[in-house]
């Protein structure tokens, strides 16, 4: 930890400093790693674990659950944020984030009559990642 991965204590401090208020954490972290688990207490219990093997997509039922849970959290309060991670941050994370953007209507493609599109979601993810 710390050489390949971000230091867990520093990540926890980041979320507690920027995304916590008197009501508790305004963040929810989605851990998609099957080989890297950590105590949710490090993040005030605001961790949702969906262990998925490296280089494998989530099962469809699991993906739907993740996306709905993400959307519920975001809709609960305007200050709520989500963080999604796997080992490299592009395969499983990209799939989940792009699916949520399509589900929520977050990523609108002006070229396609202001509707959500896979291309717009993937482009946004690639730029922001």
Describe the structure.
It is built from four helices and seven strands; from the N terminus they run αββββαβαββα. It has 129 residues and is of the alpha/beta class. The protein has a single domain (8-128), classed as Alpha-Beta Complex (Protein-Tyrosine Phosphatase, Chain A). It has a three-stranded parallel sheet, covered by helices on one side. The protein is globular and about 40 Å long.
Layout: helices, strands, pairs:
Blueprint: H1 8-18, E1 20-21, E2 24-25, E3 27-33, E4 47-52, H2 60-76, E5 81-85, H3 92-104, E6 108-109, E7 115-116, H4 118-128
Parallel strand pairs: 3-4, 3-5
Antiparallel strand pairs: 1-2, 6-7
Task: Sum up the overall morphology in one term.
Answer: globular
Overall number of domains: 1
Mean pLDDT: 87
What's the total helix number?
A: 4
Strand content: 15-25%
List keywords for this structure.
4 helices; hydrolase; phosphatidylinositol-3,4,5-trisphosphate 3-phosphatase activity; Protein-Tyrosine Phosphatase, Chain A; 7 strands; two-stranded antiparallel ribbon; Dual-spec_lipid-protein_phosph; Phosphatase tensin-type domain-containing protein; Tyr_Pase_AS; globular
